[in-house]
Amino acid sequence: MDNNYTTKWVKGIAYEVAFWNNVFRWRHTLKGMMGWSHYGDVISLEGFDANAYLNSCQEPVVLDVGCGMSYATGNFIENEKGRQPINLHYVDPLAYDFNDILKKRKSSLPRIEFGMAEYLSAFYPNNEVDLIIIQNALDHSFDPMKGIMEAIDTLSPNGILYLNHHPDEAVMEHYKGFHQWNINCEGDNLVIWNKETKLIVNELVNTFAQVTVRRHDNGHVIAIIAKTGNRPAHTADDKRDIRRLCEQTMMASRYCNKSCAVIKSRLSYWGYNIIQFFAQAMPWSLKMKVKKLIKQA
User: Which residues, including other chains, have CB under 8 Å from residue 257's CB and lie 6 or more apart?
Assistant: First the structure.
């Protein structure tokens, strides 16, 4: 993996934290977000009957990976016995920053667990998670294909990885910040690509997982990846992963320890924080119009 992706990812943190800080700052924005969130309700996912699937599992375990602070995933299942809480873990690499925001805003919402899609099997037991949900987040990671492989490792036998993403978001966002990868479908294939690389997910996982992908009515790319077996040893290289993780850590540390980078990072955060202060204060309809104009510019 090109170290440039890691550096760009680190640079994108300031915007993400500033965005959520201001979503939780304004009561009407938080209320609007929780209005479309399924938190406190039965789990509901576009294009997949998660409630029926989880009812078929014994004491199901669910991960919402790259969850941000949206709490979009419902945390109950429903059956003839009524509603029952799900063993649901909200997981994000920016968990420490997000939990600081929850503490500052005195929110009673569940705290977020630290974890990274690219190393998910190091955070949760292999072969024990029934459903992993990644919505509008896999394309924000620095190595989305590795995130898929790690999710499959973590899934229980016949477990499901559910992906839901806007198509080609990196193109739409001009490859800024976290947006370094595009996700789309070509026929029956799930495709991950950017300016340098194109990956056909179906071909890379076909011996141990089955991929079903389609465009939802709203344009979202939805993929259901069902685990059919354990990933062969030759598809994993722990030594390479350790080398890469060490290198990424040092590259990020090198960037963050530069005086100019620290100053730039703090200025970026406060700049984004000011922008988001006013952006999140806008009525929702006006905000969507402004965002559309910016994307078209």
Answer: none
